């Protein structure tokens, strides 16, 4: 499928979606969001793909929602149009692991998109921010909720109220990103992480993702129960037998998603 605002590449078991509106620092317009939603749906149902990377350019992961497209919209346009909904639902609906590889600006909707992925690997030059306050609005696709869960109330308030940017070091210290890598190695390092994930049993990967995500949605007691049931259920899989046999036989496990 040919896209105009994103590039989709599949290399072995890893798919990479590159946001591709360089003249607008990958600002998220409705066309890009619609293509992103479609690509994610297709990759999630492609049996060959076992891990997905979402990335941008060296200068910008995404500088936010497209301000030029939004600027003249009314309350009714935004409320009824709700043009962010399909993409945000598409990202959170994906069952396979998704890594955001962030270089440069991840602002507003760009930061929110990165946070919707399962984890973020940042280049040294990454900058995160929720600067919507400078435009007379606030975050609209999860920034106030997800950033607060990632970094806590104080830092989240600071980011949302002052609109300041957080560099990669601060983002790593605060728990927003899982690791920082040299800018030139961002894609190599992210692909290595994706390939590691792709080697695992997809059944266990999906269970791990569901269980971690559940921790955001429920009480500790319910979350622990959910985790325990998934843990128990994995003993019904051939991959559990294979993984534990391979450990004892001191060889690499060959998972078959069974
Ligand atoms: N939208 C549209 N165009 C953009 C955007 C954007 N968000 N960001 C950058 N661009 C464009 C610029 O207009 C410029 O284009 P042109 O040359 O045609 O004028 C080009 O990209 C390059 O940008 P700059 O010249 O500004 O580059 P600099 O290196 O000087 O600055 C910055 C880079 C700091 C990233 C700067 O471009 C900037 O501040 N951008 C805006 C960041 C921002 O405010 N983001 C938040 C947007 S609002 C949002 O994301 C809300 C999301 C939730 C909506 C939910 C609705 C339901």
From TrEMBL:
It comes from the Bacteria. Pfam families: ECH_1 (PF00378). It is an enzyme of class 4 (lyase). It catalyses: a (3S)-3-hydroxyacyl-CoA = a (2E)-enoyl-CoA + H2O; a 4-saturated-(3S)-3-hydroxyacyl-CoA = a (3E)-enoyl-CoA + H2O. InterPro entries: ClpP/crotonase-like_dom_sf, Enoyl-CoA_hyd/isom_CS, Enoyl-CoA_hydra/iso, Enoyl-CoA_hydra_C. Transmembrane segments: none annotated. One of its GO terms (molecular function) is isomerase activity. Gene3D superfamilies: 2-enoyl-CoA Hydratase, Chain A, domain 1, Lyase 2-enoyl-coa Hydratase, Chain A, domain 2. One of its GO terms (biological process) is fatty acid beta-oxidation. CDD domains: crotonase-like. Keywords: Fatty acid metabolism, Isomerase, Lipid metabolism, Lyase. Its EC number is 4.2.1.17. PANTHER family: ENOYL-COA HYDRATASE, MITOCHONDRIAL, ENOYL-COA HYDRATASE-RELATED. Could possibly oxidize fatty acids using specific components. Belongs to the enoyl-CoA hydratase/isomerase family. NCBIfam families: PRK05862.1. This is enoyl-CoA hydratase.
């Amino acid at each position: 499928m040919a896209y105009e605002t994103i590039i989709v590449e599949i290399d072995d078991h890893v798919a990479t979606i590159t946001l591709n509106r360089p003249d607008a620092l990958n600002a998220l317009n409705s066309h890009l969001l619609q293509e992103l939603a479609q690509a994610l749906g297709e990759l999630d149902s492609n049996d060959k793909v076992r891990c997905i990377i979402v990335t941008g350019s060296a200068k910008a992961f995404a500088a936010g929602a497209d301000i030029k497209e939004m600027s003249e919209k009314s309350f009714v346009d935004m409320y009824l149009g709700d043009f962010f909904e399909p993409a945000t639902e598409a990202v959170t609906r994906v069952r396979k692991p998704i890594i955001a590889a962030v270089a440069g600006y991840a602002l507003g909707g760009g930061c929110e998109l990165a946070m919707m992925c399962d984890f973020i690997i940042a280049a040294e030059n990454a900058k995160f921010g929720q600067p919507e306050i400078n435009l007379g609005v606030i975050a609209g696709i999860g920034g106030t909720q997800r950033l607060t869960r990632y970094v806590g109330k104080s830092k989240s308030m600071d980011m949302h109220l002052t609109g300041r940017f957080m560099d990669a070091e601060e983002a790593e210290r605060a728990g927003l990103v899982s690791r920082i890598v040299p800018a030139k190695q961002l894609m190599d390092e992210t692909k290595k992480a994706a390939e590691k994930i792709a080697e695992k049993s997809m059944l266990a990967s999906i269970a791990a993702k569901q269980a971690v995500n559940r921790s955001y949605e429920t009480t500790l007691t319910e979350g622990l129960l959910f985790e325990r049931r998934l843990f128990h259920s994995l003993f019904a899989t051939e991959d559990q037998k294979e993984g534990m046999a391979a450990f004892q036989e001191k060889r690499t496990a060959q998972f078959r998603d069974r």
